[in-house]
Hints:
Layout: H1 3-12, E1 18-27, E2 39-40, E3 42-55, E4 60-65, E5 73-76, H2 94-105, E6 113-119, H3 129-144, H4 151-166, H5 173-180, E7 185-190, E8 196-200, E9 208-214, H6 225-239, H7 253-259, H8 263-287, H9 295-307, H10 314-325, E10 330-334, E11 341-347, H11 351-365, E12 371-374, E13 382-383
Parallel strand pairs: 4-6
Antiparallel strand pairs: 1-3, 1-13, 2-7, 3-6, 4-5, 7-8, 9-11, 9-12, 10-11
Amino acid sequence: MNRAAQGFQDLYGSPPEGVWAAPGRVNLIGEHTDYNDGFALPFALPQRTEVAAARRTDRELRLHSADVPSGVVTLDLTDLTPGGTPRGPAGWTAYPAGVAWALLEAGLPVGGADLYVRSDVPTGAGLSSSAALEVATAMALTELYGIPLPGAELATLARRAENAYVGVPCGVMDQMASACSSAGHALHLDTRTLEQRHIPFDCAASGLRLLVIDTRVKHDLADGAYAARRSSCHRAAAALGLPALRDLAYADLPEALSRLTDPIGRRRVRHIVTENERVLRVEAELRAGRLRAAGPLLTEGHASLRDDYEVSCPELDLAVATANAAGAYGARMTGGGFGGSALALIDAEAEAEVTRAVEGAFAAAGFTAPHVTRAVPAAGAARIL
């Protein structure tokens, strides 16, 4: 039996009605563009969060995670309020509770449920473990109550849960990648229109690997730094008379920067506009089968995130610099920043050498040993049992 289903039965005394799974994601390029109505190029990972679930006849939401020692947390659907879920070990319950709240707020007739969660998506690694939990929960609850939704709608409601209930002012890219990706492809996402294009991305066919280097530095996007950058971008867009920074053309960037008096705002604008351009350029290289040519754009994106957006950290910078020095075609941090993971595009035969170099550099710097794995584009969320 599926492990989540078995865990559900062991805990609740009867089998679940189904098991739903949603993946974590890596963002190849296009960081912090989603809340600026811009472009991103993520893809789903094989690592996923599974939610085994069954309906209840009352309004209780009972939540248990096999990965968190918080026992069963019972919430009343009629009492859900943003910021009102437990802190400490049970703080993870804010994500599924927020999803239930968002579904009810949208007028969808979901009811009580028992949920059992298992996940192999690393938390705090910049791989969207929260989005995976939200999307899997949203799919479980809507299908249990006979109201299955398209992936984009699930993603939008999951984002609403994280914004309004959990308190993280993220864009929609993470949830869209988890809900809508397809195996073997990167997902070009227009975060304004939610238009999607599935771009073939097969590193193995080109003799390449894409490594994920988890620095083991945990990050918390609810600590204010993320919100501060979002606010800075919105202030800059308003100062330029634009609906969003997405509306600033790359060719018009120098003139726009000359009109901004805030040096921090100028740096934030420069990152967003150049990052949108990098997404389009990387997509063009992938479509042409020139995967190696995308490498320098990854490194360029990291420099922009480090210097203009100021969301990197010493561990991420060391991972990127070491991978590049060891022969990577390009490398960059991925995710919101302040910790988490980096990517490195390398020749397949260089995997062991690059891994040793990064591990050695971390040891020499006195950092916690990183965890290095391959990233392979996987399918998006689905019912698996």
